[in-house]
Automatic annotation (TrEMBL):
Gene3D superfamilies reported in the protein's UniProt record: 3.30.70.100
Name of the protein in question: NIPSNAP family protein
Highest taxon above the source species: Bacteria
InterPro entries for the chain: Dimeric_a/b-barrel, NIPSNAP
Segments forming domain NIPSNAP: 11-105
Amino acid sequence: MSFAEYEAVLELRRYTLHPGRRDELIELFEREFVDPQEEAGAHLFGLFRVPSSPDEFLWLRGFRSMALRKEALETFYFGPAWKEHREAANATMIDSDNVLLLRPVVRGLTSPPPGPELHLSLAAPSSDAFAVFETEPSPNNFPQLPVREDGPFTVSFSRSASPSGVLLEPTTRSLLR
């Protein structure tokens, strides 16, 4: 199995955190939540700080299909890791509902071109975008985790800055760099 298969359905999750608690959540997340989600059938492409927004944590979680998304989320969120650490994680957050459910237009998260920076854009993709996603039209099949429905959205990743883009700073366990 290739990680490229996990680009079929992507969640772009942007959390607004209580001031000064981002590193606390990242430490907990990397220690307690990455492996159990991977074991459940999700693939965590990227975990990021957003330098321009010190109280934001942004991350990407991929799935092979909508059906397997539902199965993976049920396994993780009804499982022991989330039950044990959810209160600590939720205590760091103001908002965890800024979530886009996406499907690929141009796949490329698993093999990005080399470069010193990674940028996310929520507008029309630049000519050098190496991965592009658009709103997934299927209904959210795990309603316990809301997704935004005010789209449609286009999301792209590139190595160069754009007017509508944000610089992403990978955390220690981020695969996308």
